[in-house]
Specification:
about 260 residues; alpha/beta; Rossmann fold; 7-stranded parallel beta sheet; 7 strands; globular
Length: about 260
């Protein structure tokens, strides 16, 4: 059964991959992103990939009014939205003692509050229409374990909050037939990994991360964004009709592996 899916952060990374994978299945796709050009390019790609219909808009997940307006416009353009992927996120790293309050607030605002606003808006739209739906949030292994490299307290706190929120939201929304789950991607080859880098610095960092993945991840590589997208789309689909409040870990075995090598 095809669906109409709205994806935040749909212009790049896992969000873009989710939009294109949904398009390949013939779903109608609404793409939201802070970057208008990225949203439009992803929409064009989704149409070429086979989407039933496509719509895109500029929207900031931390702006309540923009989100509400975007959901309304998407419902008008494509028909009732019954699947939502809350993929918008940022990662700003800093050692804890040096982290600014502005950095802490920015990461929590986008990753946690943005997820809350997306899910709440979707829930209100679905409940007002008396329709069931499926919502997927993006968590992280850092919600469950500390990263050995450190400097990850804001991001880890934001994703830990997302995971707790998913469990609570699932209970609240289950009586309305609305499922809420999380996908947990590990190291994924997306632009967010290389934020602020270009040229030689970008290539050096890519090589470093690929080498680290080969040594540290049981499957020996980083994920392609489409692999995470497929996990998210399973949770959004009717094949997962009895799954809610759950986490689907898609990390190449990273969290299953002990750091001890003796």
């Amino acid at each position: 059964m095809t669906k109409t899916v709205l994806i935040t952060g749909g212009g790049s990374g896992i969000g873009r991959a989710t939009a294109l994978e949904a398009a390949r299945r013939g779903w109608a796709v609404a793409i939201l992103d802070r970057d208008a050009g990225s949203a439009e390019r992803a929409a064009d790609e989704a149409l070429l990939a086979g989407a039933r219909e496509v719509w895109s808009a500029t929207s900031d997940v931390t702006n309540e009014r923009e989100l509400v307006d975007a959901f309304r416009a998407a419902n008008t353009a494509l028909g009732p939205v019954d699947a939502v992927a809350a993929s918008a996120g940022i990662e700003l790293n800093s050692p804890l003692a040096q982290m600014s309050l502005d950095t802490w607030r920015r990461v929590l605002d986008v990753n946690l509050t943005g997820t809350f606003l997306t899910v709440r808006t979707a829930a209100r739209v679905l409940q007002d229409a008396g329709r069931p739906g499926s919502l997927v949030c993006v968590s992280s292994p850092s919600a469950f374990v500390g990263f050995a490299g450190g400097s990850n307290s804001a991001y880890g706190a934001s994703k830990g909050g997302v995971s707790a929120f998913v469990r609570a939201a699932a209970i609240d929304l289950a009586p309305h037939g609305i499922r809420v789950n999380a996908v947990v991607p590990g190291a994924t080859d997306t632009p967010m990994l290389y934020f602020g880098l270009d040229g030689e610095a970008l290539e050096t960092e890519r090589a470093r991360l690929r080498d680290a993945a080969a040594r540290q991840i049981p499957l020996g590589r980083m994920a392609d964004p489409v692999e995470v997208a497929r996990a998210a789309l399973w949770l959004l689909s009717d094949e997962a009709s009895y799954v809610t409040g759950s986490h689907l870990v898609c990390d190449g075995g990273l969290m299953a592996k002990s750091a001890n090598d003796f």
